[in-house]
Every structure is written in structure tokens, then in C-alpha cells.
Write a structure and sequence with these properties.
165 residues, three-stranded antiparallel beta sheet, globular, 51% helix, mainly alpha
Length: 165
């Protein structure tokens, strides 16, 4: 169920528009992703990992490993992600967590960690995540040095939550 929903969501993104539409309000997406991830680490009391390497499914105990996107998603998704390994990795984490939630329904609430990034792609925006920074095109840059300490106690952004985040 969760995996099917995640696959449908990725397949419905207009990948030809990704990276062509962006604005400063997209910075909120980066903030909310970082806040949700920091809240996850705080709630689970797991040692924080850099956001680009924080595979939530693995951290929760998934032993099945990475998902093969090409086996699940349409050719538009596969083509775009093959050209952007940063986004590909985050989408793999998202799908892997959805698969894990199908077998462990108590972890489904953590799928929302990835919602801001998916929403950004749905809007036509794009992000880049490295070990040093999260960059939202035309929306801002979040240095990742000390990211957890800056975000674990932040309040959710109401505007994003009202849009189904």
C-alpha cells in the first residue's frame, strides 16, 4: 500500500519540468525536510547522520536493502534519476521506507520526512544534497555542518503542512 502510493507519486511527477520552476518560497521545503529528519533522530534517539546519507529505512532496521527504481517506476523517472544521483539516492530512500512500512506499519509516519522533497519536485523545483549542503534551486542553501542542532527543536512550517505536507 505505502510502496504503491510512493511509486504512483513519483510516476505522476512531470520530470521534464523538474528544475525549470523555482522560487524563493521553495526554501521552506528545505527547512521542513531538515526539521522532519532532525525530529526523527530526536524521537528515535538514533545518532544523527548527514541528511544525504540518512537512509531512514536502514536506520529502522530494514535488511532488504536498496530498491531498484527501474523495476518500479516509469521511464521518465528512471531517465531523470539516472542523470542526478543525489536525487536518485533520496528517491531510493523514500521508496525503501515505503516498502518497509508495508511490512512494518508502525513506521509509516516517517515516510513524511521525504514529502517536502517530493513536493518540490512536483512543483518543478529541484534540490541538490551533498555532505556539506542542501541546495534548493533559487530557494537557498542549508549548510549541513551542525544541521541537527539547528533543526531538532524547530516548529513545523504551517504553510507547508496546510498544503498536504
Amino acid at each position: 500500500m505505502y510502496l504503491d502510493q510512493a511509486i504512483l507519486r513519483l510516476n505522476n511527477i512531470n520530470w521534464s519540468l523538474v528544475g525549470t520552476v523555482s522560487n524563493k518560497e521553495d526554501a521552506d521545503v528545505g527547512y521542513e525536510f531538515m526539521r522532519r529528519l532532525a525530529s526523527f533522530f530526536k524521537e528515535t534517539q538514533l545518532a544523527p547522520k548527514p541528511p544525504g546519507l540518512a537512509n531512514v529505512a536502514n536506520l529502522l532496521g530494514d535488511s532488504e536493502g536498496e530498491i531498484e527504481i527501474a523495476a518500479l517506476c516509469n521511464s521518465d523517472v528512471v531517465q531523470f534519476l539516472s542523470e542526478d544521483k543525489n536525487i536518485q539516492r533520496m528517491m531510493q530512500y523514500y521508496l525503501q521506507l515505503a516498502r518497509y512500512a508495508d511490512k512494518n506499519p508502525d513506521v509509516h509516519r516517517y515516510i513524511s520526512i521525504y514529502d517536502p522533497l517530493i513536493t518540490l519536485l512536483e512543483r518543478g523545483g529541484v534540490f541538490r544534497i551533498t555532505l556539506r549542503e542542501l541546495v534548493i534551486k533559487n530557494g537557498g542553501t542549508y549548510p549541513l555542518n551542525g544541521w541537527y542542532e539547528r533543526f531538532f527543536d524547530k516548529a513545523p512550517l504551517d504553510g507547508l503542512n496546510k498544503k498536504g505536507q
